[in-house]
Amino acid sequence: MISTDIAVIGAGPGGISAAIVLAQGGKDVTVIDQAQFPREKYCGDGLTASAIKSLDKLGLDTTQIKSWTPINRAILSSPKSSIATLGLSKGLMATATRYDLDSALVNLAKTKGIKVFEGCKFKGVLDPKSSSKIILDVENLGQINCNYVIGADGMWSPTRKAFGVFEQQGYLGDWHAFRQYFSNVSQDPNELWVFFEPEILPGYAWSFPVGEGKANVGFGIKRKSGQRSGEMKKTWNTLLERSGIKQVLGKDAKACSVLRAWPIPTRITTTKLFAKDGKVLFVGDAARAGDAMTGEGIAQALTTGHLAAMSILESEKHRSLLAHEIYYNAVRRYLGTGHSLTMVISKLLQSPTGADLAVRGAGKPYISKRFSHWLFEDYPKTLVDIPRLWKQPK
Ligand SMILES: Cc1cc2nc3c(=O)[nH]c(=O)nc-3n(C[C@H](O)[C@H](O)[C@H](O)COP(=O)(O)OP(=O)(O)OC[C@H]3O[C@@H](n4cnc5c(N)ncnc54)[C@H](O)[C@@H]3O)c2cc1C
Predict the structure, then answer these.
(1) Domain residue spans in the chain?
(2) Which residue from 127, 124, 180, 177 is spatially nearest to 155, judged by alpha carbons?
(3) Separation of CA 386 and ligand 1 centre (Å)
(4) Which of 41, 222, 231, 305 yields a CA-CA distance of 20 to 30 A from 288?
(5) Ligand 1 mean position, distance from CA 306 (Å)
């Protein structure tokens, strides 16, 4: 049996962020993941300023990541063919394939002395109601005995299930997103495109360059209750035939991977963030932390991982405070208001007229700079409600 202070289940961005902050706080941390890294994660590979800053704080050297691509221009296309071009300053947006990024994070954790066991699937917990130490049952490893667990195991989170924290029956996520890689694209290698197409609003399609003439192309859609993936997938061929998207990819573009899809959970303000009196904290997709307007979740996974780790460290320092109470308050403060606001904006983007107005507004010279800092999370999302930020300078 392995004994450790904290077991982290899942070595994606949420799990590794938590593990590194805990190790920096002097804790003995053990991370397990069912996958061997590098591994694929179905994702758009887009990293906002918030994600880039978090990666930097963790100490990740992004120059070592093969597909790391700084983005210096974002072009938004509306359902009524309006175009907004946003010039992006350094550090506002980048892309990197999750194949490269996640394995770089796992390697970084290992260099910091964290034990990471790959190919080790969490199977369950022995006696989940017991008040003493937590014992996890892990394939290819045996048992792990620990004081705390960080559940960072994504949308389907086996950790939530094992500790009896369920969503409503049949929960399939709030967004569903599809992505496919294309090679030989003619798109500028440092320019990303977002297409608001009428049938997927308030969702959108994207083409994000990932180096070597390749692009990550996909679309995200708000899931209607009970809607199946196959039904949504039918939209893909129609989208690829749209003249705007076709033109951006260019005539020589070729699909070089299979189309893949995965759900995105975006309900952090209403979901339960912990189990077992705060001895188990959920982060990232397991905490349903994705952005309600964009479906983005890497920055949110890194942030919740950091907050969960800090909550454990703080609660151990001040014994009167429980980790899950600190975590709940921190999540409210850092993500809660922004989440409520993006839900409202997402409603505005539901109609072609609303999406067109948003794109045209974003393209106005005096708005575009502030808008891009807001959209790509250089400012907290809540800053949208500070009117002076958006006023035209006299
Ligand atoms: C198509 C698509 C496009 C997206 N595009 C973007 C984007 O451009 N930018 C962005 O920021 N976000 C995007 N997202 C969202 C983003 O991918 C997720 O929000 C993010 O990966 C969440 O990170 P995480 O660490 O919580 O979980 P994950 O990255 O899902 O990691 C969970 C880990 O847990 C492991 N695991 C699962 N079960 C077990 C088990 N039983 N035992 C051990 N390990 C286990 C998995 O192997 C995995 O490594 C997109 C999502 C989709 C589906």
Answers:
(1) 2-69+98-171+266-347, 175-264+352-390
(2) 177
(3) 32
(4) 231
(5) 16
Question: Ligand 1 centroid to 21 CA: how many Å?
Answer: 19
User: Is the distance from the beta carbon of residue 32 to the nearest atom of ligand 1 less than 6 Å?
Assistant: yes
> What is the pTM (predicted TM-score) of this model?
0.94
CATH architecture of 175-264+352-390: 2-Layer Sandwich (3.30)
State the CB neighbour count (10 A cutoff) for residue 207: 23
* C-beta 203 within 6 A of ligand 1: no
Pick the residue with more confidence: 345 or 171?
171
For 112-143, the pLDDT digits (tens) are 999 999 999 999 999 877 777 899 999 999 99
Kindly report the protein residue whose alpha carbon is nearest to atom 38 of ligand 1.
Answer: 153
What pLDDT is attached to residue 334? 86
Categorize the per-residue pLDDT at 387 as very low, low, confident or very high, splitting at 50, 70 and 90.
very low
Nearest residue (by CA) to ligand 1, atom 27, is 154
CB 34 within 8 A of CB 176: no
- Closest-lying ligand 1 atom to the alpha carbon of residue 206: 8
Identify the residue whose tokens are 């339960």.
Answer: 272
The reply to whether CATH 3.50.50.60 applies to domain 2-69+98-171+266-347 is yes
Q: What is the 3-state secondary structure (H, E, C) of the chain?
A: CEEEEEEEECCCHHHHHHHHHHHHCCCCEEEEECCCCCCCCCCCCEEEHHHHHHHHHHCCCHHHCCCCEECCEEEEECCCCCEEEEECCCCCEEECCHHHHHHHHHHHHHHCCCEEEECCCEEEEECCCCCCCEEEEECCCEEEEEEEEEECCCCCCHHHHHCCCCCCCCCCCCEEEEEEEEECCCCCCCEEEEECCHHHCCCEEEEEEEECCEEEEEEEEECCCCCCHHHHHCHHHHHHHCHHHHHHHCCCCEECCCCEEEEECECCCCCCCEEHHHCEEECHHHHCECCCCCCCCHHHHHHHHHHHHHHHHHHHHCCCCCHHHHHHHHHHHHHHHHHHHHHHHHHHCCCHHHHHHHHHHHHCHHHHHHHHHHHCCCCCHHHHHCHHHHCCCC
Confirm if 295 and 266 have CB atoms less than 8 A apart: yes
